[in-house]
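Fold it.
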Amino acid sequence: MESSKVIETLWDRIQARDWAGVAALIAEDVVVEWPISLERIVGRDNFVAVNREYPEGWSIRVLKVVAEGDEVVSEVEVPHDSLGVFRAASFWTVRDGRVVRGTEYWTSLGADPRPEWRASLVEPM
C-alpha cells in the first residue's frame, strides 16, 4: 500500500474505532511525538490505547493528505461533542506499509489569540 493510502486508511480506521485495524498499520516500535503537550508515545500498543481511550464524542474529518515517498503529511479536523473542535497537522514516516514515526501538532480552533500588532493586517476567520 502506498504511504498516502496507509495514512488515509489509518484515519478511517481510527474513525471506525477499528483498533485491531489501526494496530495493523502501526510498527511495533513506533514513536509518535506531540510537541504541543510535550508527550511522546512509544510503541504500537500505547499508540492504539491513547486513541482508544480518548473520551467519546469525537469524529474525524480528513482535510488533506500529501505524500512524497515515505513521508506523509495529514491535516484533520476533530469535532468533539463537549470539548470543541480540534485540528491536527501530522507528519508521518511510513515504511513497508506501517507507520514508524510521527509528529503531531494538535490544537483547538482559536487557541492562539491574534496579537494586536497585526490586527490591521489580517481578518478574522
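The mean pLDDT is 96.
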